[in-house]
């Protein structure tokens, strides 16, 4: 067995889901749930890039919190992707295209972990109602 510690993806997803709920507590729980539910649907149906695009284009206020935590989660995966140069939509989308979508296996792992994070955040928002 290697000395390298294993990354617990479920814990990582839960931590970032909790951060979303914490950073949106001033918003109506139903609005947070709605944004997260839509983002989850886009992620599942259309993929990682489409989910970021949706949140940046259509769900600006709550979406910016979700995007920030999605980027933090991706950075926490340990693939060396880092973070975008800025939070501007064009920089975020370029980062996703240039770093995240380039390796299919890593992209699929990232997608699954993002899905788990959004599911946890959705339940967290519902628990606030």
Beta fraction of the residues? under 5%
Number of strands: 0
Give Rg in angstroms. 14 Å
Percent range of helical residues: over 70%
Question: Care to describe what's here?
Answer:
The chain is mainly alpha-helical. It has a single domain, classed as AF1862-like domain (Peroxidase, domain 1, Orthogonal Bundle). Helices cover 76% and strands 0% of the residues. It is built from six helices and no strands. It has helices at 9-23, 29-46, 48-58, 60-76, 89-100, 104-128. The mean pLDDT is 94.
Short description:
This protein is an all-alpha fold and 129 residues long. The protein contains six helices and no strands.
Q: Helices, strands, pairings?
A:
Elements: H1 9-23, H2 29-46, H3 48-58, H4 60-76, H5 89-100, H6 104-128
Helix pairs in contact: 1-4, 1-6, 2-3, 2-6, 3-4, 3-5
Descriptive terms for the model:
129 residues, mainly alpha, Peroxidase, domain 1, 6 helices, 76% helix, globular
């Amino acid at each position: 067995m290697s000395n390298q510690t294993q990354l617990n993806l479920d814990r990582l997803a839960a931590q970032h889901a909790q951060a979303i709920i914490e950073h949106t507590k001033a918003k109506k729980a139903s609005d947070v749930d709605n944004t997260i539910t839509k983002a989850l649907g886009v992620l599942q149906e259309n993929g990682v890039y489409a989910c970021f695009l949706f949140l940046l284009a259509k769900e600006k206020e709550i979406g910016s919190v979700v995007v920030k935590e999605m980027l933090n989660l991706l950075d926490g995966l340990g693939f060396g992707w880092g973070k975008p140069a800025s939070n501007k939509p064009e920089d975020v989308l370029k980062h996703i295209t240039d770093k995240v979508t380039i390796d299919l296996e890593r992209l699929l792992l990232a997608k699954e972990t993002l899905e788990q994070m959004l599911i946890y955040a959705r339940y967290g928002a519902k628990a606030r109602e």
